[in-house]
Description:
Blueprint: H1 3-27, H2 45-61, H3 73-90, H4 108-123, H5 125-128, H6 132-149, E1 155-157, E2 160-162, E3 170-172, E4 176-178, H7 182-194, H8 205-223, H9 243-255, H10 262-265, H11 268-285, E5 293-297, E6 306-310, H12 313-323, H13 330-334, H14 339-352, H15 370-388, H16 396-407, H17 410-467
Antiparallel strand pairs: 1-2, 3-4, 5-6
Helix pairs in contact: 1-15, 2-3, 2-4, 2-15, 3-6, 4-6, 4-7, 7-8, 7-9, 9-11, 9-12, 11-14, 12-14, 12-15
Amino acid sequence: MTTDQTESTNLQLVESILKGLAKVRVQRNGWFDSEVEVVEVESLAFKIGESIRPFLLAKQYDPEAFSSIPLEEQILVRDITFVLKKVIKQGFYPSPYSPIPEVKDQYTDFAAFSLEFADLVYGLVDSLGTKSLPQLSQKVASKALSFLTDEKNYLSDAKGIRWAGTSTYRRERKVTEYYTDVYFTSVAIISLRKVLERPVLDLNERQKDKLRGLIRNAGKWIVSRVDNRGLITGDEKKNIQKLIYTTWGLRALVETNDTQEEVVRNQFNPMITAYLGEIERKLDQEGVSLGQEYFTILSPTVDEPLYYEDRSDWGGILLTLISLRKIPGADSFLENTSYRNILDEVYNGLMSLRNPVSSLWYKDTFILSIHSYLIEAFLAYEKFSKDFGVAIGITSGMLRKAIKETFLDESFLSSLQHLVYSKLSGISKTRRQDLIIDKALAQAVPDATNQETSESLAKQQQKKRRKK
């Protein structure tokens, strides 16, 4: 597959996903998936925002290619307005993902999301054509920035700066328990970096310097979480070793690379090497799938720790893998690793999980939020395939081999056999019904002819009688 073919395929892929999402929105009259929510209690603001984000990302990436998106502009604008107004009114209550819906706790990841979301909307107001959106998006961006940069909402000490899932980042027991977390720290500084120079906030130099200081000190804390495996752990004690922490911690460092100190940047290559090795192990042992991870957080209103779910999974891994090429000089380093093969395998593994009918991702359950990460990853891949002439390595030989192995797969053959015979059964049934109809018609025609003949003979006999 050439680079041009890959670019075309990526944009077509994004377009087909958007069409699938638009169909969900229209047919279900809202952004509903396999998760059950009580809409009278939950505003669903976070889920609605995640579902709209792919459309905004596509329009931002290529306004010309995506000038006509498959979702009616009236619906898009109405949903955007709903999310922005809910955030202004309720703050960063992550409906419907809060473990305790009746308590309107404020969450770091929704604040980070809202900051980026508001920036996306503000940058597209001309194409969206609604006068109220600029003011609403600026209000949300300002509110999110205030939350993330409020000194009460993050922990700062000699180790650096970090955020927890909520503003409550520690609990006092016999010892102090900390709930600061690499994931929430990562999403916070990614969003802060994205809006640093953006007009939605129009920051002065003093404000920008403050943000740069937060980002740098957070980067310092993230790299201090690296353990003897070379991977990033999630917590203060470096006990939580889930891969998601390296996925998001590494991506945060890459996205904020130009703001980080040299001592932090010098640790990129060893972390990347360890990360690629761990992904290879995960591919060998588990393969690509759609799953979730759970973080432990503290609520400001509930004393016991709670569990909070993330759905990025392999979509987040693909996004981080693609983002590695943003590092200056990364190409020469990555070419000496198994990076290309891993990227190919993750990309193709995710594509194998796509539902061919709906163009969306689900197997047992349908989850909307995964598509936000995937759209961002596919658009990022499109950009870097242009910039670096890199294409996913699918050769004609690989494709032939995949097709051959597919037809040797017993489960596939069983499914195919069931489908074929179901279709044949349907055709047979139709033909059988047609034969019954044909026979009925054939019987009806002679009867009608005989009736007409009898009537004709009767009339002739009547005429003969009159003549006599």
